[in-house]
Design goal:
Elements (H helix, E strand, L loop, with lengths): L11 E5 L1 E6 L5 E6 L2 E6 L2 E8 L3 H9 L1 E6 L5 H7 L9 H5 L3 E2 L8 E2 L4 E13 L2 E13 L19 E4 L3 E3 L20
Antiparallel strand pairs: 1-11, 2-3, 2-6, 4-5, 5-10, 6-9, 7-8, 9-10, 11-12
Bound molecules: flavin mononucleotide.
Flavin mononucleotide (FMN) binds next to strand 3, strand 5 and helix 1.
């Protein structure tokens, strides 16, 4: 495959679209869109987010030591973009985006009600990366939409409909079709059985 070199930049596909909820010292909630987000350990369950140190969200999390990562469904693409282009320093993004909150179980930061998957985190570590701060959060609880489960308890991912962000070209897409079963279909290429 012929390649074009892009140099040291941040183009990478796909990235999740997430809305991070946080609270300030008065308990006022803020929403911020973030795509530099991911699960980084299973033992213990840990989520990492990378925030510019100038964000209101960084200020809130560094002081309150808690945050919630809310998965964004494709139906909320416009609202998520809005939460990524305005700061909670001078906007009530919750009100302006027409979104709502619900209480979390383990942290005082609320969940985004319209998100079908919410991850409650307690800040455990912070790493300085130039203008950014990599924040590691121990996962305390995950809430998944009840409507996604069948009678056998199996989750139907179509109910989540995650919004994918293509960093570098700045576009939001939704998911296509399932192509393979993870940890299973790769077995077809295993020779040392
Ligand atoms: C799609 C998208 C992804 C973003 N991802 C991040 C991110 O991972 N880290 C970050 O610091 N800012 C990210 N931003 C920018 C912040 O969301 C934006 O600066 C926001 O206004 C900060 O809000 P706050 O000041 O209320 O915390 C992203 C913006 C968009 C639109």
């Amino acid at each position: 495959m012929l390649k074009r070199q892009l140099g040291p930049c941040v183009t990478y596909f796909p990235q999740p679209t997430s809305i991070i909820t946080s609270v300030n010292s008065e308990g006022t909630a803020n929403l911020m869109t973030a795509s530099w987000v991911g699960i980084v350990s299973k033992t213990p369950p840990t989520m990492a987010i990378s925030l510019n140190k100038g964000r209101q969200t960084y200020d809130n999390i560094s002081k309150q030591k808690e945050f919630v990562v809310n998965m964004v469904p494709a139906s909320l693409a416009v609202e998520a973009d809005f939460c990524g282009i305005r700061s909670g320093k001078n906007h009530d993004k919750l009100e302006q985006a027409g979104l709502s909150l619900q209480p979390a179980e383990c942290v005082k930061v609320p969940l985004l009600n319209e998100s079908p998957l919410n991850v409650e985190c307690r800040l455990v570590q912070e790493v300085e990366l130039g203008d950014y701060r990599l924040l590691m959060g121990e996962i305390l609880q995950i809430h998944a939409a009840e409507s996604a489960f069948d009678e056998a308890g199996k989750m139907d991912v179509r109910c989540f409909d995650p919004l994918v962000y293509l960093g570098g070209v700045r576009e939001y897409w939704d998911l296509g079709n399932m192509r393979a079963a993870a940890y299973a279909d790769g077995q077809r290429l295993v020779v040392d059985k």
